[in-house]
Amino acid sequence: MIGFLRGRLAAKQPPQLLIDVGGVGYEVEAPMSTFYGLPAAGAEVSLFTHLVVREDAHILFAFGTERERKLFRELLKVSNVGPKLALSLLSGMSVDAFMLCVEAEDADALVRIPGVGRKTAERLLIEMRDRIKHLGVGSAVAPMPGRPTESSNGAAQAEAYSALIALGYKPAEVTRLLRAVDASVQTTEEMIRGALQAAATK
User: Fold this and answer.
1) Among the listed residues 146, 170, 163, 194, the one whose alpha carbon sits nearest the alpha carbon of residue 16
2) Per-residue pLDDT averaged across 118-131, rounded?
3) Is 30 within the bounds of a domain?
4) What gap in Å lies between CA 17 and CA 22, rounded to an integer?
5) Confidence at residue 63, expressed as pLDDT on a 0 to 100 scale
6) Is 123:133 a contact under the CB 8 Å cutoff?
7) Within 13 Å, how many C-alpha atoms sit on residue 76's CB side?
């Protein structure tokens, strides 16, 4: 099992990252909660990882904090929750927000996340009630302060659009969410954050 990666952030295109570790490029998938803390491409980064083995692929998932990875692993134990849905949940809300959601039995907040239907939301509230108590306070290995990469507004919008589609949002919904983002926002990460915040309050 690969527990963590430390190397150069070669490329990032939500939800995929490419980490150069000693000349070997590791392709990983990460939630938006991790993307927000990443430095610019080319910088050093450390990430906790979780390997999912399927018949047709080995997929490595990466997380900025141990708590994110713990929650991801606990979510995978819930009936009918796979890696893609677990990633969407972590992209749609922070670990603390998820814990509050479970404690408050707020199914409506969970249903706003792509792929989470009413039955799945209710199952999450029931099955995660005891498991969230074991999440604790983890240490952050990944977030290394770095200036966000500036890009032209058009390129950033295109990247944000692709990332939101990859997270499960429908094209029409993505267009609406991106229109709700403040026009002064220039970076891809900020656009995605704004769109996800708009989705959470719709």
Assistant:
1) 163
2) 91
3) yes
4) 16
5) 95
6) no
7) 14
CATH number for the domain that contains residue 159: 1.10.8.10
| Whole-number Cα distances in Å, 70 to 37, 122, 131, 200 | 18, 21, 10, 23
CATH of the domain at 97: 1.10.150.20
Q: pLDDT tens-digit profile of 7-62?
A: 999 999 888 999 999 999 999 999 988 988 888 899 999 999 999 988 888 999 99
Beta bridge partners of 47: 5
* Chain segment 56-93, per-residue pLDDT in tens: 889 999 999 999 999 999 999 998 899 999 999 998 88
On whether both 81 and 55 belong to a single domain, the answer is no
Number of domain units in the chain: 3
Q: Which domain, by its residues, includes 12?
A: 4-63
Query: What HEC string does the chain produce?
Result: CCCEEEEEEEEEECCEEEEEECCEEEEEECCHHHHCCCCCCCCEEEEEEEEEECCCCEEEEEECEHHHHHHHHHHHCCCCCCHHHHHHHHHHCCHHHHHHHHHCCCHHHHHCCCCCCHHHHHHHHHHCCCHHHHCCCCCECCCCCCCCCCCCHHHHHHHHHHHHHHCCCCHHHHHHHHHCCCCCCCCHHHHHHHHHHHHHHC
